[in-house]
Specification:
single chain; 5 helices
Length: about 180
């Protein structure tokens, strides 16, 4: 068992205005993972030193090793500073970080976990890569699909899910949480 904690960060934008938007699907997955902690669900609370809402889980509550669940309180495009602060505060190597983010280039609901790679134009990932100084961290991408017609991608990611999509988000968050936990075994 590794002594180093695993840091799982769900990217998104802070505040109720952005709740339920495509860009905040990373927050949905963190909430799902927190709900799976045993013997009771974990609650996230503000850690001022890292500017993030966190839940620190002892070994065995979610995984065999210590896990830190986090949601930066920064906007998506500047997430890297909070991720770097979390990594420093908890002494986590980049390879022990999983960043959960929305992905325009994947079909709605598709989930993919990979180590390293490009940012595919995702400003949150670009910020994390710049702040960590490496691309060698894990990324769990959650597909939100392409915007319909000529809708601007920035407007699309900041829009709420449609009623039909919103009904599927809990299932997608559960699938994403399953992918994370399966990769850890």
């Amino acid at each position: 068992m590794s002594e180093t904690p695993l840091l799982i960060v769900g990217l998104g934008n802070p505040g109720p205005k952005y709740s339920g938007t495509r860009h905040n699907v990373g927050h949905e997955v963190i909430a799902e993972l927190a709900s799976r902690a045993t013997p009771q669900a974990a609650n996230l609370s503000l850690n001022r030193k890292t500017n993030a809402e966190i839940a620190e889980l002892a070994p065995g509550r979610l995984e065999a090793r210590r896990v830190i669940l986090a949601q930066p309180r920064t906007f998506m495009n500047t997430s890297g500073g909070a991720v770097k602060a979390l990594a420093n505060y908890f002494s986590v190597r980049p390879t022990d970080i999983i960043i959960i983010h929305d992905e325009l280039e994947q079909d709605f609901g598709a989930v993919r976990l990979r180590l390293g790679g490009g940012d595919h134009g995702h400003n949150g990932l670009r910020s994390v890569t710049k702040s960590l100084g490496t691309k060698d961290y894990q990324r769990l991408s959650v597909g939100i699909g392409r915007p319909p017609g000529r809708l601007d991608p920035a407007s699309f990611v900041l829009a709420k899910f449609s009623k039909k999509e919103a009904a599927e988000v809990p299932i997608i968050a559960a699938d994403a949480a399953d992918e994370v936990l399966q990769a850890l075994t």
